[in-house]
Amino acid sequence: MNWCTDCAVASPLGQSALVAMVLTITTFVCLVRARGNAQQLLALAGLAFAAVAVGTAIAGGMIGVLGVVALLLFGTACYYYRMTARPNAVRTMAVFLGVSAVVLATHRVPGFHGLPLLAPTVICEGCQRLWLLGHMDKPFVGLLLFAIALNGWPLWSRGKRAHPPLLRSAGVTVATVAVVALAVMGVMSLLSAVRWAPKAPDVATVMMFLAVNLFFTTFAEEVFFRMFLHDAMRRCFPKTFTSAWRIIAVSTALFGLAHIAGGPLYVLGALLAGIGYGYVYEKTQRIEWAIAAHFGVNVTHFLLFSYPRLAP
Asked: CB neighbours (10 Å) of residue 144?
């Protein structure tokens, strides 16, 4: 395992932890739309899956003592952010959550170890190598923000918001995916970062990529950059952020900066994409549609263009 020196040892326990995390996220996302007895059952199921995810991750060497402490502190901060009404406390907790979420999601906190899923491999001619790791810190950031801080677990509701009809939201999302994919891939092609490269990797690689990208990357990023940041800007600075486009501009700029490790081209691509994802979230008032838009663009890139990008 010389390509991943700080990884957990691949084991059934680690794989079980990843599966349990997928089930936990799915359950809590479904919980938002549930009512009555179904809501209670999903809440219990979500908590059970989360307990299994944490337990198997600890037993499998993916989360250590420091990791558990970090998640407990982050979860506590999420709860306080949700429940407090004092402006200064809200701003303080928003800053704390924002900084700690980035540190956790970028794997800077000790006590977490990724699980090797796919060794470095080239999936298309002229492309850089692709590898996959299953991490628990980043999805837990998204899950705790979604379920606790942002009322995804509707036990203490701040009030219901009106949502557009399902078909209209779906139409907005599909149209945005088409426009964003065309814009991002078009610009990246002109800058020689990617090229048209339809591919059909083996089924196992495709399914692994789809699962990791949706549940361990896209979910956490959309919950943070759209759901959390949009909520924080409205709560912390209600007089400044009165326009949805102003909020989208700020969250998009931060989304672009978050991709700076990939270089200027990645930042540019993220900026273009972030505008679309922010628009979908504001238009539909549902994080599920923003996640779907983000995932749709990523899948288009993966299946139809050089992935992750052309090699130098």
From this structure: 26
CB atoms within 10 A of CB 311: 11
Tens digit of each residue's pLDDT (9 = 90 or more) over 159-213: 455 678 899 999 999 999 999 999 999 999 999 999 999 998 899 999 999 999 9
User: DSSP letters of 227-253?
Assistant: IIHHHHHHHH-TTT--SHHHHHHHHHH
HSE-up of 50 (CA within 13 Å, CB side)? 21
3-state helix, strand, coil in the chain (%, to 5): 65, 5, 25
Q: Please give the structure tokens belonging to residue 22.
A: 């997928």
Q: Give pTM, 2 decimals.
A: 0.94
Q: Is residue 108 predicted with pLDDT exceeding 90?
A: yes
What is the C-alpha end-to-end distance of the chain, expressed in Å?
25
- CB atoms under 10 Å from CB of 104, counted, come to 23
Residues 201/123, Cβ–Cβ less than 8 Å: yes
Evaluate if residue 2 carries a pLDDT over 90: no
Q: What is the mean pLDDT of residues 12-35?
A: 93
- A 10 A CB-CB count for 103 gives 15
> What residues have CB less than 8 Å from 64, skipping those under 6 apart?
58, 110, 111, 112, 113
Q: Is 10 helix (H, G, I), strand (E, B) or coil?
A: coil
The tokens describing 47, both together, are: 């908590």
- Distance separating alpha carbons of residues 202 and 208, to the nearest angstrom: 10
**DSSP string of 19-70, one letter each residue:** HHHHHHHHHHHHHTT--THHHHHHHHHHHHHHHHHHHHHHHTTSB-HHHHHH
One-letter amino acid of 102? V
